[in-house]
Design a protein that fits this description.
Nucleotidyltransferase, domain 5; five-stranded mixed beta sheet; rod-shaped
């Protein structure tokens, strides 16, 4: 598209957009393929939903509670922390599909909750849930 007279050896002033569009389309395809892989987390957690039904006391479930003084209860019976793994193993052997729900006071340190979750996992209980109060604390 050269205009003018000076000869045919002059530099072309127009930008060739075709290679740029090709590169952009390839990058778009790469990002579309890799974006779903970046959303997966390393740990699968069954998070509570806002519309979760209230917890009903069934015969086929187990509730482990930790109060503010770090006392541990299975259903309504208090157990020393050292006996808890043995008790959970015995329950898991008797009924391996029983779901376990963990209730902890708000001021219980996370390491205590994690220890109970680890004891349940080591006992062979695959279904563990956390119980929480859906109402926000006062002042929020």
């Amino acid at each position: 598209m050269g205009m003018g007279g000076g000869g045919g050896d002059g530099a072309m002033a127009d930008i060739n957009v075709t290679p740029l569009v090709d590169v952009m389309l390839v990058l778009l395809i790469i990002f579309m393929v890799t974006a779903p892989m970046m959303n997966s987390a390393g740990i699968e957690i069954d998070l509570p939903r806002e519309e979760a039904p209230s917890l009903e006391q069934d015969e086929d479930q187990l509730i482990v509670s930790i109060d503010g003084e770090l006392r541990t209860y299975i259903d309504d019976q208090e157990f020393p922390r050292a006996e808890l793994p043995k008790k959970l193993e015995a329950i898991a052997k008797a009924n391996p599909d029983i779901p376990i729900f963990l209730r902890a006071a708000g001021d219980v340190p996370y390491r205590e909750v994690a220890a109970i979750l680890a004891a349940a996992k080591d006992a062979g209980m695959p279904r563990v849930g956390l119980v929480f109060d859906p109402t926000p604390p006062p002042g929020e």
